[in-house]
Amino acid sequence: MTITPSLQNTFVLLKEAFSSSTDLKMKTMKFPHCEYGLFYLDTMIDTTVFQDHIVKPLTERPDITVEEVITLRVIEKSETFQEVVNAIVQGKTVLQKEGECVLYLLGTELQKERSINIPTKERVLRGSNEAFIENLDTNINMVRKNAPSANLVVKYFTLGRVSKTRVAVVSIKGIANPDVVTMIERRLQQIDIDYLEAPGFIQEFIQDKRFCLFPQVLTTERPDRTRAYLMEGKTAIFTEGSPDVTLMPVSFWAFFQSPDDYQINWFFGSIFRLLRICCFFIAIGLPGLYISLASFQSYVLPLNVALTFQGALKYIALQPVVETVLMLIALEILREATVRLANPIAQAIGVVGGIVIGTAVVQSNLVSNTAVIVASFTGLASFIIPSYEMSSSVRVINYPVIFLSSIFGMVGFVFSLFCLLVYLCRMNTMGLPYFYPALFGSEAKDTLIRAPIWKLRERPKEAAPLNRLRLRKPKG
């Protein structure tokens, strides 16, 4: 639909488009030789900017062209009715002169955003204390300040038929693989949905496997971590209204890396990373190992340990598999309660609830002390993983391991871990191997361990970067 030169016709069209919404304002400014029409949503514009940069200049110099009299930074032209409607929804003021088909879209958006604060979901001991916010332009500004390079490429997309959500794809030219970037952009353009709740919707639309046990994208709120992964050749996806940034493609080992690893001595950083990887296997296998040993193969344990197991289970009414599952479910309920409740109440519920439930179930002979210890260690091991997505996956995967261990004992336990390893080896993300071999070659320097910085001369292969050389003269 095109715009006609008549202001009255524009009034009628906009009134129908916005269903006579009361916050839609349509004003007329009449002068001896010309007449202007102003269309805007009073709940979306900055009234100070509107008065000082539009109304006042037009009143003082009505005969000068709009480009000369308006002093705003954003002035666009449009002849399409749909573009005018979208501009009004975004908070712009539309200006039309009687007798002209061209409408001016003036940037008067009301900017209300929270200040840049410290990260709340990814706290580290050392490193930057800035976190992304919900404003897309501010987030892009933070990335450009951290990586002031002309090769930093930003491409904008608008997704959602109704929501019109702005999405930005950020990569570094010359480092990021253009085939991977093109694939991500193509998958974003193929999203056809009315409303986009980001970044969760985007992750499910663009990932390779729709039904996957492990996360295929990495989410972060830290600008320094985003910059580090961009420098490795990965691509970042920013979304308007969300402080979380989606990074891809990533491998399995990226979910165990923390900014702290690169701020401390490499030896301690390697120990902490190995600890996280060990906790991954503890969180998955400890309940199944306990069930298989307590129910089937207790004879493989030393005599004193086996007698302790049997003594602890002698007066317990429930089977080991039942008591373990109940304790894990109770742990999940406590975790969810502490997340949803207000902070002061959540702390009290977490401490008191854990003590009361643990003491009550043991004294009532429903659950053994060993099961409580196993469930506690499993929960702590899952919480130490830096990525929330990977931590959630671990807490779900241990249930199939428990199921097979309760039926086949140690054979089922080993078989479940073997199937898990095969599943990881077969996974791909953006056409790249997810469980990339990390025990040999240059890739082992920043996966299981964190080698000294002067040893990390090449970028990881997981994102298939164009330029793998990162460090040229390690010691000057």
TrEMBL record:
GO biological process: spore germination
One GO CC term, this protein: membrane
Record has Secreted as a keyword: no
Keyword match DNA damage: no
Coiled-coil regions, chain positions: none
Pfam families: GerA (PF03323)
Transmembrane segments: 274-296, 316-334, 366-385, 397-424
Superkingdom of the source species: Bacteria
Keyword vocabulary terms for this entry: Membrane, Transmembrane, Transmembrane helix
PANTHER family associated with the record: LEUCINE ZIPPER PROTEIN 4 (PTHR22550:SF5), SPORE GERMINATION PROTEIN (PTHR22550)
Family: Belongs to the GerABKA family.
Name by which UniProt lists this protein: Spore gernimation protein GerA
Organism for this UniProt entry: Paenibacillus pectinilyticus
